[in-house]
Amino acid sequence: MTSLASDTPAPDTLAPGTLAPGDAGTPPAARHLIDGTWTGEPTTERRNPARPAELAALSPSGTVEDADAAVTAAARAQPAWAALPAPSRGAVLLRAASLLDIRSLDIASDLVREEGKTFAEATGEVKRAADVLRFFGSLGWAPSGDVLPSATPGTTITTRREPLGVFALITPWNFPLAIPAWKAAPALVSGNAVVLKPAELTPLSATHLARALHDAGVPAGVFNVVHGKGRVVGEALARDERIAGLSFTGSTAVGLHLKGILDARRARVQLEMGGKNAVLVLDDADPGAAAAVVAAGAFGLTGQACTATSRVYVTPGVRDAFVEALVLEARAYTPGDGLDGARMGAVVSEAQLAQDAAAVRGAVERGATLLAGTHDVDASQGLLFPPAVLTQMSPDDPAATDEIFGPVVAVLDVPDYEAGLAAVNSSRYGLTAGICTDSLALATDFAARAQAGVVKINRPTSGLDLNVPFGGVKDSSTNTFREQGRAAVEFYTWGKTVYLGV
Length: 502
Ligand code: NAD
What we know:
- The chain is α/β, with parallel strands linked by helices.
- It folds into 2 domains: 31-273 and 488-501, 3-Layer(aba) Sandwich (Aldehyde Dehydrogenase, Chain A, domain 1), CATH 3.40.605.10; 277-474, 3-Layer(aba) Sandwich (Aldehyde Dehydrogenase, Chain A, domain 2).
- The protein is built from 15 helices and 23 strands.
- Helix 3 (104-115) packs across helix 4 (119-138) and helix 9 crosses helix 10 (316-332).
- The longest helix has 20 residues, at 64-83.
- The chain is globular.
- The termini are far apart.
- Nicotinamide-adenine-dinucleotide is lined by residues 170-174, 197, 199-200, 230-231, 234-235, 238, 249-251, 254, 257-258, 272-275, 306, 403, 405, 431, 476.
């Protein structure tokens, strides 16, 4: 078995654990990183969703004791890390970014095999993670407060941000490298220590991040990873009173459960959860361009993005031309093995595949028309689900209201802009919302009145820049602290105001 872990910094060698499928008959193995040591017997198997016969990864199943050891290490290591000059903390992130760049092709291959996305999506994700580390690493040199005038003579006021201590990060499988990176980087550059609990389905990606940070020289205990089940390791982290805050991305049900635990002891908590993101297509939009925008948002990343488009409201003048173009787009997204150049990757798990198929089957049984795709899939040759386009359904149909997390889009007719805006805002979720229109006036009105944390005008609902705030409203997010960009630092720090009399 090849281990991803290494105790010897090897910045210019390729990561071990990058065996070709079937090579030597053993998959890469993830390990916990606790107090600077790679540990845990990798016994949990993960199969390649595009090739179910192929073992993609092995990982350890962490215990409550592993979580406790990681928090103990983090609490011990954090004060010395916080005492380092911020540029020195940032330098570790910058070195780790370079290591991700060097190892990009191998990390991307592991990512495709364990998660199922396309190779282009995976290499893009590795680059994103490296860029995120660079962005936050460079913040080590940035101002971290203001100098303000005082009404009292001889007094200067400054503001500063202080780290909180130890953060738990609990992350999902759909961006298994980028999400841990965009949570860990602002935490670390601000002087906190971190314990990451990655998703069970994608242990290799998180281990690659840990290995890059470890090899870049992060001190023992400052960045820890504990693999395993959410209700064991994740729950233990959330309940540990030494954890100053928790940043969680995942399902709404789990997020709200964890919030209850953190709120009870008034610890800081940030949740990014589900979505049911809508696009409004207006008569003045080019139908082909609108269909390409919707397809990219709905079928890119196999629809497995929290920001994916899954509802479309369309006005009568463009409706038929738009639907025709969308069906053509859908048929061009052929699912397959991401390492074989497929346009669309595999579905992450049998459970998710069953959820996708059930959503489409249910809608059809309730009277919807299925214009592209199927609900009758054979998973024996790979978890492949062709994009589905549903029309002629009630706005209250579950396929139009409930998160599916797959490449399924419900197209609903609306009479005009106002009705479309009301339909967009009718969801319990509010992560991203889009509009396709040539009207600057309506686009501006939509940007102001759409109930979503991110608004996209003539652009897919998925796809985010790393230097700007990200988060949602309603059941999509805690809607307090934002992730990404400079705003992310606020969650991981507290503000202090200092009066200096000289
Ligand atoms: P999930 O909630 O099942 O799991 C997310 C993480 O929480 C995993 O690491 C899991 O092990 C852990 N977990 C599960 N139960 C736990 C418990 N009782 N205590 C502590 N931790 C626990 O979600 P998932 O299936 O991995 O991801 C899909 C979901 O994530 C979708 O609902 C999607 O919308 C959401 N998501 C949201 C965003 C966003 O930014 N808003 C991004 C990606 C995914």
